[in-house]
Design a protein that fits this description.
Distance between the termini: 77 Å
Structural class: alpha/beta
Shape: globular
Strand order of the largest sheet: 3-2-1-4-5-6-11
Number of strands: 13
Helix content: 40-55%
Strand content: 15-25%
Largest sheet: 7 strands, parallel
């Protein structure tokens, strides 16, 4: 049986607003409620169609009244934030992520109408460390527990969601662990990082990155909201990009820095409001992370349209990133080096 009334959290941001718009475009769904603490930007609000915006704070127990009075049967929790700057600081971010999720789950538990819960999580729950396996499956635990930030929030949230599932076995619970989003329409710390003309990396590291096109992310969330697909699923695109390959494909200049100066440089970048690069994101850029997506394909029934490389190239094209150093200049330098080498022989 399909959903009748869907509540989507986090509609002031790209994923939540566009998911609400997709669901609202389906005439078989009676109502779509979009919840957030602030209204979406005007362009996102216009694009949401008949979806109704409800200004509410999921940290407040009054969210239970919204769910009960609207007779919500499906909740998509898409408001989990990975950016302290966008959330008003790390304390506010943790409150919204963890306390907000606890209040939302309590509201769902008390509502007899709720029968489906979808939670947008992250592959960051696996952590990033030099001891990681080549590929993480859903059954694997992190080699090193996330020590803070978004990754730790998501790890705690998944624990609360499992507890909710035990208390309400009649509710279909879907947890989606997303790889990092990329694409022409999303603005994240990762897209800003690759848009820097000079991209700092850590000397001696070349992370393996698995990405996901933002349109594929929306399609997965939409499918989870429409169908009963309980379980935990890794969501990532096929294929892997090395960090150095991604920088070259974006036409950026890579500067490898000793690990001792990475901290001060990343703090300078954050302070200059260029990129909100958190410590857990820096670990990802050091060690990378790749997940197995067999369950996504075979059990969930979804195959991404874009590979990791195609998604990254679409981001580069969509943001009109042009090489900092033109291919002609690179060829000229190469020819000069070769000519010098020949003269010395």
């Amino acid at each position: 049986m399909g959903p009748s009334v869907i509540l989507v959290t986090g509609v002031s941001r790209f994923i939540g607003a566009h998911l609400a718009a997709r669901l609202a475009a389906d005439p078989s769904i009676d109502r779509v409620l979009g919840v957030d603490t602030v209204p979406p930007p005007r362009d996102l609000l216009r694009g949401m169609g008949r979806a109704e915006f409800v200004r509410a704070d999921i940290r407040n127990p009054l969210i239970a009244k919204v769910i009960t009075s609207a007779e919500v049967d499906t909740v998509v929790h898409a408001s989990l934030s990975s950016s302290p700057a966008a959330s008003g600081g790390r304390v506010a971010m943790k409150e919204m992520n963890v306390i907000g999720t606890m209040q939302l789950l309590a509201a769902c538990q008390r509502s007899p109408r709720v029968r489906r819960l979808v939670v947008k999580s992250t592959t960051a729950v696996y952590g990033s460390s030099p001891r990681d396996p080549a590929i993480f499956t859903e059954a694997m635990a992190p080699k090193a527990l996330p020590s803070g930030g978004w990754a730790k929030d998501a790890f705690e949230i998944e624990g609360y969601v499992r507890g909710f599932g035990r208390r309400r076995p009649d509710v279909s619970v879907t947890v989606l662990r997303f790889a990092n989003f990329i694409g022409p329409r999303v603005d994240t710390s990762l897209t800003r990082y690759f848009a820097l003309p000079v991209v700092p990396t850590v000397l001696g590291y070349d992370a393996r990155m698995q990405l996901l096109h933002s349109e594929d992310a929306l399609a997965v969330l939409e499918q989870a909201a429409r169908q009963d697909l309980p379980g935990v699923f890794n969501v990532g695109a096929p294929g892997v990009l090395l960090l150095s390959q991604a920088i070259r494909r974006a036409g950026r200049v890579q500067v490898s820095l000793p690990s001792l100066v990475v901290g001060p440089v990343s703090r300078f970048i954050r302070g200059a409001r260029l990129v909100d690069m958190t410590p857990e994101q820096m670990r990802f850029l050091n060690f990378g992370r790749v997940v197995d997506t067999d369950l996504l394909r075979d059990t969930f029934g979804f195959t991404p349209r874009w590979t990791t490389m195609q998604a990254f190239d679409d981001f580069v094209h969509g943001h009109n990133l042009r090489p900092v150093i033109s291919p002609a200049q690179v060829r000229a330098v190469e020819q000069g080096v070769m000519a010098t080498a020949r003269a010395l022989l």
